[in-house]
Fold these 4 entries.
Entry 1:
Amino acid sequence: MPEINKLLRTAHQYQASDLYVTTGARPILRIHGGLIAIEEHPILTREKTEAYLLEIMSSDQKKYFEQNSDIDFAIEIKNIARFRVNIFVQRKGIGATFRLIPEKIKTLDELELPEQLKKIAHFKDGLVLTTGPAGSGKSTTLAAILDEINRTKQYHIVTIEDPIEFIHENKKSIIEQREVGAHTHSFHKALRAGLREDTNVILIGELRDPESFSLALSAAETGHLILGSINTRGTENTINRIIDSFPSEQQNQIRMQLSTSMRAIMWQTLVKRKDTEGRVAAVEILFNNKAISNLIRKSQTHQMQSIIETRQKEGMQTMEHAISELLRRGIIDEKDAMEGMPTEMEIA
């Protein structure tokens, strides 16, 4: 058994979201957003850190790490949890971040996410994006949406991830999970293959570049429901990020594709709960309609916020409304509500 398993079990025991193992520091847990060092553990030397981390890598992974100075993969402690691992080189030696992925996929209700997100399970095609900074729960939300589809639809679902995070078992649907590196050479190759595999739904772990944006939009236009995530803040910023990633001569075409293919964008952040030691997601929700589509085509996305504010009956809500509602329900306190409110840069 790898020596680091004891630390990973400790992270699971204390319900940490992350474990940090790095040369020159004690192992550190992130618990409900805060950082707590494991004081009984000595400061990690270069040799001890390497012993912890090299032991969990295969020979191929070690070779890749030597060539690239960082690597992403996943490991599992049976009946405990999976962990998404990033190992990297830093000034003092090597380090790693372990993100805990629970074995059980929580439902949208268990996550206390807005009821209207269940609408997504009934979309037959189009592009659905979840956005937010790293650690905001995007993967957890996507897993819950995918599970909702799995429980309610007879679909063929393919996920393309780097690495595979949540493990989905077949329910009403058939789910096939592919990991970049282990099962396919790239997101792009797997996505192209997915279009030829009679799929209904394709989940892309993260959309990162113009090629993946372009392929996702094309797939959404050809009758597939595409679920993906982007590390952006704000629904408007997400659309602008996609458009601006393309050369200027292609941007009008991308606007047209987004205006017709985009179905929903969820921007989320985690806010500390008042009632328990945990965090809850506040979610801004945009559902595409004629008004939103028109603003995207005309490059007037700065006006979208007013549409979101006035279309609550269609299931839309701003981040301010989401946080205010959590405050009204007594789930968060006023101080944390104020800290969670978006800045002008995030909503502009």
Entry 2:
Amino acid sequence: MSNGVVTMDASWNITKVNQAATRILRQSGQKLEGKTAQEVLGTRNAWILNSLGKVRSSGETDITVDADLLLEDHTSVSINLTAVPLVTTRDQPMGYMLVIEDITREKRLRNTMSRYMSKAVVDQLLESGDATLSGVDREVSVLFSDIRGFTSISERLGARETIVMLNEYFTDMVDIVFAHNGILDKYIGDMIMAVFGSVMAGDSDADDAVEVGNRMMTGLRLLNQRRVNTGREPIHIGVGVSTGHVVVGNIGSPKRLEYTVIGDRVNLAERLESANKYYGTSVLLCQFTAAKLKRPALLREIDLIRVRGSTQPFSVFEALDHHTEKSFSMRDEVLQAYAEGLRLYRQRDWVQAATCFHAASNANPGDKPSSLFLERCRQYIETPPPEGWDGVWAMGHH
């Protein structure tokens, strides 16, 4: 048995202990048996004697959860304790039994993991056992977010105000991650890495990741309102989301393990986050994430790209559900003209594509993807690409 069992007679003299009990109490059976509960547990564990007292007076089982058992060496063990009355076949009291469940490891893991994920996800992780922690191949969605111009902001604010800003920002953003079943993988300076599906894969992992990206942007607007109202400058962020198979588990040395994910799709999420700066967007996701979405989402295909180190191109989409009329005016007109322009662009009809992108830019001069493709069309009108052109844009060439 993994649980410790201690039996005692009606006077609380210990009659028998199992091997698990000697391990938990850190005393040999020979040293424990024959002693009274008071001698073994001492005044430091008066709560256990009180539990036995309740059982003696009521004749009913008494259960205590998540309590500290103080040992002779002044260390403690987190336990669940069940005190049970023992009776004869004629229901005559004959003694007592303590069942001790050592939850120290579970409590330590729970306290550690609760900093990175919601309570519901921690419970799932604990139920899944050690196999999940040791390393598995799993399809997940990975999200990266990053503060724009952080270095110059931190130089203007100074060390103390930078920490205040980051703590305020991280608090709001991580609450959003936890609210949608995400796991906070790590902070990297001003960057947040979150993962969806690394503990328990679900059908809505991609939806949750995109939802978090959108809600980060709406949450940022509220945060910036507070900052502006108190005389502080607003901050801006970009978000990248990718989906695919990664390796999940505890990675590191015995002295410092980190429950994280590694793989190409992790790197892709970070590159998409950075690509927002080029496209003038806020939330970008790859086609693999878009293909996994189950819930309706307003997306705009941005480009067909190839990242460094990869031979296969893929489509990139912009998530737009976070926008308001103020943040994206004339949205329907822009999206319609942009989609038509992108179709013509890929057919090498640069003149007509430029007309569409020009119309989109006129409807909303602040829409950078429209102006970017308008400039590409103008360049291709003057210098067309070679016949084998496939419409793919190589990231890193800009």
Entry 3:
Amino acid sequence: MAISVEVLAVFFFIALASVLSARKIRAPYTILLVLVGLAMTALPISTFTGLGGFFSGLVNDQLFIGLILPPLLFESVVEVRLADFRAVYRPALLMATVGVLISALVVGVVLWKVVGLSILVSFLFAAMISPTDVATVLDVFSRVKVPTRLATLVEMESVFNDATGIAIFTVVLTTSAAATLQPVEAVADFSYILSGGILVGLGVAWAARRVQALIEDSVTQVVLTLVAVYGAYALATALGTSGLIAVAVTGLFYGNSALFRVESKQVAETTREFWEVLAFVANAAAFLFIGVSTNIYLLATSFGAFLVAYGVVVMARITSVYPILSVTKVGGSTIPSSWMNTSALGGMRGALAIVLVSAVPPGIRAQVATLTFGVVMLSILVQGPLLSSYARQTFGRQETLQQYTGYEAIYDLEGKPRGAEALTPEPGGRETDELR
């Protein structure tokens, strides 16, 4: 893995320039980062700056997911209140398991039987592309005002569905090698991956809470959270379970049991600010990585193929979202159609799918990579702006949030609720499904 001070300097310069430019033109900075990455690849700038080699090294060493995604997950879920999580965990987990399975089956069968791709290419691609990307969803939700529980629903689905996608991907790979399908083993492996990640996350959060009681200064608190986040990921991965789920559970329970209950508000605020900065760096790296990793010349010659694949992926998302959310409830209330529409649009794909390309057998890797990169690019560049626009038009009024949750949120300049302590009960607040 090639890395130097110069490479880091280039990366931070690009991230800063993208943020400043995005504010000037009022566009998501993450989309600009993807476009910058594409331009760097097209003009071989990524090789000259060293960024291309840096990202390739991270992927080849299996470090990308472990370094980049944990800060994004932790910074997001540490702000989620347990009450909101309890209200949405049923539909979120159904979407993250049954929903991903439905999506993978629809994509795989259509590409195999209708489009005519080989069964291995069809189902490997389907497994990689079915999980939604948490980084993309978080970026959009950080800039629009959506009901707290809707945001929690979509974010929790994105957090937990990675385990399902990776499990399906592994099953397809092993089945192709053994030429036999072992459904019992597949279910057992998935159960272990999911439950193991949850247990590791709970254990790390409990241990961090015990240590946190001894801490009185901000620096040690920050170091403790770093140990908890990367420790949970490393331990879960070493045990063969989901590191991402372990990090999410650690953040959810540590945030509600420790971070919001420290005696010093300054310590809590410093910790939050640190993770906001780290999450921004990770987010910038994730989207720049997507652009730099994309072979723009290969995409240009395969536009029709990945356009068809993108259409199939969107159809599969619709097939999984509306039936599941139609038969589930949030906080005892029927889920409004506007929430289903937001969830369907929020099914964007991102870095995880691209990282999994490196595990595809060499003989079909180029074909799968073309479909994956193309769908990820269209997902971000098309669905991102559509989701942002739809959410602003539908949930732009703050009273919509109050009406459903009974809480009044204080938003920062980016339109994001400023933590659980910023949510205060509104007198007479009640839950209802009367949303637009």
Entry 4:
Amino acid sequence: MKVAVVGATGMVGEVMLKVLKERNFPISELLLVASERSVGKQISYNGQSISVIGLADAVTARPDLAIFSAGGDTSLIWAPKFAAAGTTVIDNSSAWRMDPEKKLVVPEINANKLTKEDKIIANPNCSTIQLVMVLAPLHAKYKMKRVVVSTYQSVSGTGVKAVKQLENEMAGIQGEMAYPYPINRNALPHCDTFMENGYTKEEMKLAREPQKILDDRTFSISATAVRIPTAGGHSESVNVEFKSDFELNEVRRILKNTPGVIVQDNPDTNTYPMPVYAHDKDDVFVGRIRRDETQRKTLNMWIVADNLRKGAATNAIQIAEYLVDNELL
């Protein structure tokens, strides 16, 4: 299979290459694609040195599959060009997520809706993926009414520039700023740009994307997204009001039986999810599972995942695996 990775020189692109190799994805030819300034750069993959090519050359090469992580503007222009050439595109940006004609997919939840006609497939927001992985099985059982989520997001979600800002500040070096304020020893309630309603784009992604993935708009989500000085891994404090009541033991049993979810929940041994545990793993971790004592039928949880893996690269490649396994390419 001829596969193109678009945005191969970025943080997510690098992780995509790592995950493709780890999962032994069937590749006969690998095209590494990036912006013009990176064309000609050599990248090592599976013991082979591959030259980076530009987008136009990649479209001409007609890959079977193109996995995008190159930003929304690039995806809006180039994903349709790849699709017109017969390539199936899996896009990691926000460009196509809320397009009613495009599927928004977390494989464990809704990959079965994919068909051969889906030439542009949207990969959800990193914070959304880990949230719905935990909410989906509980929603199926108890039916969600309202969700309140606060995120604690790694600087790696912003990109290389933000990681460098944190490293510089920790070392006492004055450097380029990805954020309007210092991030070291700080917390910024500001992920993505602010909208007219006072929420950020990241917060509205968390509000809207789960409804589309679960194909259900009977529940609502209110989000506050915060950037914190961790190098990798997003965390979420989640409060869920259900229509039906629940037993905590049953909640834990449901989550333990959910593929891709690991329960870490034992206060007696200080066992709970943390970014340091989730690093370089593909699972979503959940703990601090407890009843909200201020309101009936309401649950509190703490959810953590590696935002560059399950939150981005791994989810996209799992979509690709589903397409291959079900002969949809």
